[in-house]
Specification:
Helix content is about 20%, strand content about 25%. With about 270 residues, it is an alpha+beta fold. Strands 7, 8, 9, 10, 13, 14, 15, 16 and 17 form a 9-stranded mixed sheet that branches. A 4-stranded antiparallel sheet has the order 3-2-5-6. A hairpin with an 8-residue loop joins strand 8 (about 100) and strand 9. The chain binds uracil. Uracil binds next to helix 5.
Amino acid sequence: MEVRLQKLIAGTGIASRRKAEQLIAAGRVTVNGKVVTELGTKVDPGRDHVKVDGKHLTAAQPFVYLMLNKPKHVMSTLNDPGGRPTVKDFLRGVSVRVFPVGRLDFDSEGLMLLTNNGDLAQALLHPRYHVPKTYLIKVKGILTDEEIGQLERGVRLEDGLTSPAQVKKVSKAEANSWLEVTIREGRKHQVKRMLESVGHPVIRLTRVKMGSLVLGRLEPGEFRFLTDREANALRELVEERVDMVERGEPLPARRRKPVRREGWARPKKAKVA
Ligand code: URA
């Protein structure tokens, strides 16, 4: 069956659909030995020999992406010399070697991406590309708008000033509050240290978003493979940022200015009990 050339290339996982189109337009793709720059070109994967930068498409390693909802008290690594449970214990039936993209603390929960696409993993983690990560947190006490403003502008930690963050009030109770904090760096224990610095220790922390990925309804300990659409969106987000940095263009806005703040919602509206 014939498919569009860019769809075939993107399907192998070596590039997003958009990047595949760029590769074709740049003359880096051949079909049966001839350079093809026409985007709508149809090919038959069973019959036609497609090469990207001189390499056979069939030799390309298929990339695998999955997300796990890491439970509390599990290491976010693949093994632990101390014998504690690790994310690997939850990947039953996954035969491809995948690696966790970044860390979550032992007592943190939530979205962990695992993949064998090393370039994508590196770009997602590199602070240069400002890929946002969002955490739903429960903290001691109730933050004032001034404290939220400090977190948004940046707070001084022992390893330097943090970049601007986004902080959304979720709900408050008598002695605790829930917030959604989005950061674009990935320093060790960063969210906990940021909140500690404004006097509100974190009691619970769940990563709910990473770039375009959303944890959604995955239960703690469950994993699933990303859909093609999700994997493609993630690759596109990263490729776009890498291209922008290479062209010296500024990345999507990071605010230092105060924003108009909504009030707190009622406690029952908290997303995690
Ligand atoms: N920030 C933290 O403090 N801990 C995590 O696990 C993730 C982000």
